Each structure stands twice: as C-alpha cells, then as structure tokens.
Amino acid sequence: MLHPGIPQPAGSLVYELLTGHPEREPGELVFVADLTCELRAWPQDTWTAVGVDPEQVAQAVISCWRDGEVTVLQVDDLSFDEARSLTRPAMTYVRGQLRGRLTARLARPPALAASHQRPPPGDQFP
C-alpha cells in the first residue's frame, strides 16, 4: 500500500487500517470487506469519509502486479459465494472459510506457492 504506484494518501490510509488493528496478527489475510466492516464500526467513518476509493487502490495494485513491481497471491479457484464474500461485509462466515483455505495455501513451501504469484498473460486479475 506504500508503493509509489499506489495513489496516496489512500494507500497509506489502507495500510494504517491493515496494520493498526489491535487484534490483527502479522501475515494475517485481510480482505477489503473486512476493512469495510471495521470502518462501519467507527461512528462516522466510511471509505468516502476517509478519502479512499477501494476500487482505485485495487486497480493500482493490479497495475503494479502486472508490471512485476509487487507479488500477489493469485486465486483462480474461488466459489461464487467466496467471490461474493470479498465485497459483502455481511458474509463473514464465508470469508472466514476462505481465509482458512488461503492461509493453508500460503503455508506451502515457496516453490509451490510461487506459481500463484507470477502475472499471467492477458487480462486476468489477481
């Protein structure tokens, strides 16, 4: 989120949300819907109120990934409900299941996980 290709101050604000939560563990997978839930817990904060367009930040990360400037975990095997859970804050149970599955994938040796971190040709998204 602090990469020069990510719009600022939006990237810095998302970084603060990602790293500043008192119950978050280092290396924990956090989805935009999780951050949205956290923002809704704050009395008057929403993405607009804090000056962040999550879609713009996501597109900037994708652009940096395509240029080989950052690595990402590419997930090609999401179910319909898992994909929906990434944008719907109320779907915490499904997101929790997905987090568990992806965390297990990240625990694999780097050689196996590396195939999911290379930019594919064409217009695929992480």
Brief characterization of the structure:
By secondary structure, the chain is an all-alpha fold. 47% of the residues lie in helices and 0% in strands.
What would you say this structure looks like, in words?
With 126 residues, the protein is mainly alpha-helical. The chain has one domain. The protein is 47% helix and 0% strand. It is built from six helices and no strands. The longest helix has 15 residues, at 92-106. It is globular and about 35 Å long. The chain starts with 9 loop residues before the first helix and ends in a 13-residue tail after the last helix.
Rg: 15 Å
Q: Can you summarize the main beta sheet?
A: none
What is the 3D shape? globular
Helix content: 40-55%
Distance between the termini: 16 Å
Number of strands: 0
The sequence of SSEs as H and E is HHHHHH
Number of domains: 1
Low-confidence stretches: 112-126
Query: What oligomeric state do the depicted chains represent?
Result: single chain
Give the helices and strands, then pairings.
Elements: H1 10-20, H2 32-41, H3 54-66, H4 80-85, H5 92-106, H6 110-113
Using brief descriptors, characterize the structure shown.
mainly alpha
